Structure formats: structure tokens, C-alpha cells
């Protein structure tokens, strides 16, 4: 029997919370590396997810009653049940909580030096999540361990997949939903307004904020040098899905939504993957809890 795709174990469902109250649904994914000679994992999601504020207009709080999150509930896949038993072909989810502020309300997460202009937030999870739940007890892995074909040519019109949890929904065995889309804007042209974003054409919904966006080729792919290279399931991580553009309010668009709405939209912003390494290496702490950037 074929094994599940390894990328399913890189993506986690995120519930933002204020203390014990649910605030919003989102998606996150893991990124791996070495810190001080030891394996390390980071949780990647959006700036607007952890702050609860509109990244384009931080004065605007996204929650209808102005609640702001101070911790995250995430679900980690495991082959073992809570009592340590395994059931063949079944996936179990272990819930754990991540505080995103310390006792002095200082951010435990990092942002880009351009702050909300890059809608990505990164939380260093270290080598374990809690005193009782270790990474070794789960199936989670960093997405960069499996998206190895970094020379895949990124071109307008290329097919992409957004791996996430629309409205918190997952597949019946608790794996993320793979939404198909395509690159809808020229990925190699930059303007001051683009700020490292590309546009994708894909139907997305609330809850997919923070999803990784990948390219996948089943048998062969076109490299950046123009060569055709044979490689089964070649994969390249290209960015972090962030939000849907807010439409102009006209008679034709009345009722449509933006990033905090609830209707299907066909265009979305993706922040390029290079921002992840930039923030891990040179990011700055996020704002104090409740403060604008």
C-alpha cells in the first residue's frame, strides 16, 4: 500500500485563542533546522493570525468583538493513540498549546524587519513542545525536508497546491486539504507595492491563512536552467499563503469578502519562501500583546 504523502505531516491546524476562548481558525506548518548543534523546529503562520490584526491596516482588529489571541492550540499528527497504542492505517491528533507571549506580554514569536508588511510570523518551538509532548512522539517534520527541488522553474501559469484547513476542515483521516491553483502574476517582476508577494488563482477560504504553497511535478520538471529533469514527485516550496485582496465596494462586489470574510475567493496573496529564512536568521520580536506594530 502506498504511504501517505510526507507533506501531510508538515502542516498543522491552528486555533488562535485568548486564554480559553477561541478566536480564529488558521493553518501553520513546520520548518526544520539546526540550532547550537541540535535539531530544531519552527512553526510558520501569518502575522495577521498571531496578532489578530489586518496586516494591511493594523488598526483594524479582525475578530468581530475585538478579541486578540495570546496563545495557539495546534494539532500534531501521530501514529500512536494517547495511551501509546497504534492502530494500522489510523492517524491520531495530539493537541498542545503554544503561548505566543511571555509573562510580561512580550512576543515569543518573530516577524520580518518590515513588520506587518510581510505577513509572516515564526515561532521557535525548540526541540520539544511541552514537558510531556516531544517531537519524537509525533510524525511532524519540517517542510524543507521534503521540498528538495529548489531549482524547479517558477513561471506564471504554473500549477500550485495550497495545503491547509479551510474553515478548520480536514480530510477524514485528519490530513490537510490540498487546494489546487495556479500562479496568476509574474513571479519574477518586483515593484515597491508587491513587497515580495505573488498572486495565485485558487478558491480559498477562511482558515487557510498560513498555509504553505508548493509546486509538485509527478514525473519530471523544468529546471531554472531550462533542463528537463526526471524526478518522481519533485516538490518546491514557493511561499506562505496570506490573504485575499479586498475588492472595491461597488454594486458588483457588494457582499464579497476580504481576508476576514467567509466566502470563496479566487485570488490570493502568497509571500515568497525566502522570507522564512530571513525571519529565522534576522527577524525581530513581534509587538507587545495588544499593541500595534
Task: Write structural notes for this entry.
With 293 residues, the protein is mainly beta. The protein has one domain (6-285): Trypsin-like serine proteases (Thrombin, subunit H, Beta Barrel), CATH 2.40.10.10. 5% of the residues lie in helices and 37% in strands. The chain has two helices and 16 strands. The chain has helices spanning 47-51, 274-282, and strands at 11-18, 21-35, 38-45, 71-78, 92-99, 109-111, 121-126, 159-164, 177-183, 197-204, 212-217, 220-222, 228-230, 234-243, 265-272, 284-285. It has an eight-stranded antiparallel β-sheet. Strands 8-9-10-15-14-11 form a six-stranded antiparallel beta barrel. The longest helix has 9 residues, at 274-282.
Give descriptors for this structure.
mainly beta, Thrombin, subunit H, 5% helix, 6-stranded antiparallel barrel, 293 residues, 2 helices, 8-stranded antiparallel sheet
Amino acid at each position: 500500500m502506498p504511504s501517505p504523502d510526507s507533506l501531510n505531516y508538515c502542516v498543522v491546524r491552528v486555533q488562535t485563542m485568548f486564554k480559553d476562548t477561541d478566536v480564529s481558525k488558521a493553518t501553520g506548518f513546520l520548518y526544520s533546522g539546526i540550532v547550537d548543534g541540535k535539531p530544531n523546529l519552527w512553526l510558520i503562520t501569518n502575522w495577521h493570525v498571531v496578532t489578530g490584526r489586518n496586516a494591511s491596516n493594523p488598526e483594524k482588529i479582525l475578530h468581530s468583538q475585538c478579541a486578540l489571541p495570546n496563545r495557539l492550540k495546534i494539532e500534531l499528527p501521530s501514529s500512536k493513540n494517547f495511551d501509546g497504542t497504534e492502530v494500522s492505517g489510523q492517524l491520531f491528533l495530539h493537541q498542545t498549546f503554544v503561548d505566543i507571549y511571555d509573562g510580561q506580554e512580550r512576543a515569543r514569536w518573530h516577524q520580518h524587519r518590515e513588520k506587518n508588511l510581510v505577513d509572516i510570523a515564526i515561532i521557535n518551538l525548540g526541540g520539544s513542545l511541552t514537558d510531556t509532548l516531544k517531537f519524537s512522539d509525533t510524525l511532524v517534520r519540517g517542510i524543507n525536508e521534503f521540498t528538495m527541488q529548489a531549482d524547479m522553474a517558477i513561471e506564471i501559469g504554473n500549477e500550485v497546491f495550497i495545503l491547509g484547513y479551510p474553515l478548520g476542515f480536514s480530510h477524514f483521516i485528519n490530513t490537510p486539504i490540498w487546494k489546487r491553483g495556479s500562479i496568476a502574476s509574474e513571479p519574477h517582476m518586483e515593484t515597491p507595492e508587491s513587497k515580495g508577494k505573488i498572486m495565485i488563482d485558487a478558491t480559498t477560504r477562511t482558515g487557510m491563512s498560513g498555509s504553505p504553497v508548493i509546486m509538485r511535478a509527478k514525473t519530471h520538471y523544468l529546471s531554472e536552467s531550462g533542463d528537463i529533469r526526471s524526478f518522481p514527485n519533485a516538490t518546491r516550496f514557493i511561499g506562505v499563503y496570506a490573504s485575499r485582496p479586498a475588492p472595491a465596494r461597488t454594486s458588483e462586489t457588494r457582499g464579497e469578502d476580504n481576508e476576514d470574510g467567509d466566502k470563496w475567493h479566487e485570488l490570493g496573496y502568497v509571500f515568497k519562501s525566502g522570507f522564512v529564512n530571513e525571519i529565522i536568521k534576522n527577524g525581530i520580536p513581534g509587538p507587545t500583546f495588544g499593541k500595534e506594530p
